[in-house]
Amino acid sequence: MSLAYERHELAVAVADLLAHPDDPSLPIHQPWWRQSLALGVPGIALLHMELAAAGLRPWQRAHHWLAAATSGPVTAGPDSHPFHGAPALAHVLASAATHQPGSYARALDGLDTAIAADARRRVAAAHARIDAGELPALAEFDAIRGLTGIGAYLLRRPSGGQELRAVLEYLVRLTTPLHREGEVLPGWWTGSGPNGRPDDRFPGGHGNTGMAHGIAGPLALLALAALRGVVVQGQLTAIATICSWLDRWRSNTDAGPIWPYWVTRSQLRAGRATPSSAQRPSWCYGTAGLARAQQLAALATGDLVHRVAAEHALARVLTDRRQLAATTDPSLCHGYASLAHIAHRVAADALPGNAARLNARVPHLLNRIDPTGAGPRRTAAALIRDAPGPGLLEGAAGVALAALSCSTSSVPDSSWDSCLLTARPTQREDG
């Protein structure tokens, strides 16, 4: 068992404490509450849906939360992004439709139309930026705010084919080197700091490696699309280009391979970056997310060497005390839930020996969510109390979903985490 109790009991306890979307103890008056997948209602609805699909709680609760998410105007266009507004709500409704085919069809049709229009606008703006020889903003291409996250949703939807191909063609072009001030930069090099804003600590910008904001996200999407059979010209070459760049910046330490969160301009010139051997190995940044992205890339291209290396890297990091000690919270974004969930996903696609090593680590990682043995109810209450919001990325709903996904009680072909680019698309989502 992963905890002193069944894995799904924590998910049930969190859901029971988040049973009512109008509970005044929740941040119901915050402007982000209804439309934020990261922090608010959509992520909680996702948890209730997965529990209902697993037969652990009634569908009516999920429908109540979905009704709350869609009870007012939906932000679309430039003010929306994969974790807020139309794409965030569409991800949750599409997950509901996966479990209950035909449900929410009219709402999804409207959201799909808005998302497709936004994808076309974003792709056109990105190509214009490349034509002008300018550096991209992280929000142009990343998984949280950019076209990678939009593409992850389009990959789920039968109606998203044309726009999906346009996103993939853009990501292929993103890997074309840029020439600036006599230097050759990777096409995803941004002039800002990692927070997307100008930062004096990053003169000359940086190259971000992470899954949330960096090039690992596009790599995962390019690979996932190829695994689905959606391939545009240059896609496999783009995958190889990104993998080669990650190989260049990998440090082989006594704790296994480690990648820097980002490469600065001075490090690029020196050809060397030395990541900390005690950095956090999470989904958003670090070895866990990078290992999954590279495993998917290897599966898409039939590259056994990189597949073994990615699986081995994750298995090593999950037994390294220094890097695990850098993980200090339970969240799905960068905490123990993140590590357990990715280990579970990678193990499902791993070679037998690596799969056994990874599966053996999942219980230990989930145990760290409740290190004192407080039990599911008290742990659930603490998760809700201590997070910035009870939603998916940093809140209780995300932790609960990770615990559930590692349980035999969960739905094996669910893709609730497709927004994280960790789930392989399933046949059921082909519509």
Write a structural description.
- A hairpin with a 2-residue loop joins strand 4 (251-253) and strand 5 (256-258).
- The chain is globular, with a radius of gyration of 20 Å.
- With 431 residues, the chain is mainly alpha-helical.
- Helix content is 51%, strand content 4%.
- It is built from 18 helices and six strands.
- The protein has helices at residues 7-17, 41-53, 59-69, 86-99, 105-131, 138-141, 147-156, 161-174, 216-228, 235-248, 265-270, 287-301, 304-317, 321-325, 336-348, 352-367, 376-386, 396-405; strands at residues 178-180, 183-185, 206-208, 251-253, 256-258, 262-264.
- The strands form three sheets. It has a two-stranded antiparallel sheet. It has a two-stranded antiparallel ribbon with strand order 3-6. Strands 4-5 form a two-stranded antiparallel ribbon.
Topology:
Layout: H1 7-17, H2 41-53, H3 59-69, H4 86-99, H5 105-131, H6 138-141, H7 147-156, H8 161-174, E1 178-180, E2 183-185, E3 206-208, H9 216-228, H10 235-248, E4 251-253, E5 256-258, E6 262-264, H11 265-270, H12 287-301, H13 304-317, H14 321-325, H15 336-348, H16 352-367, H17 376-386, H18 396-405
Antiparallel strand pairs: 1-2, 3-6, 4-5
Helix pairs in contact: 1-17, 1-18, 2-3, 2-4, 2-18, 4-5, 5-7, 5-8, 7-8, 7-9, 8-10, 9-10, 9-12, 10-12, 12-13, 12-15, 13-16, 15-16, 15-18
Give short descriptive properties of this protein.
431 residues; two-stranded antiparallel sheet; 51% helix; single chain; 6 strands; mainly alpha; 18 helices
Distance between the terminal alpha carbons, to the nearest Å? 35 Å
Overall strand count: 6
* Helix segment tally: 18
Any idea what the shape is?
A: globular
Largest sheet: 2 strands, antiparallel
Write down the secondary-structure element order. HHHHHHHHEEEHHEEEHHHHHHHH
| Helix/strand/pairing category | mainly alpha
- Radius of gyration, whole Å: 20 Å
Mean pLDDT: 93
Helix-residue proportion: 40-55%
Instruction: Identify low-pLDDT runs.
Output: 427-431
**Main sheet: which strands, in order across?**
1-2
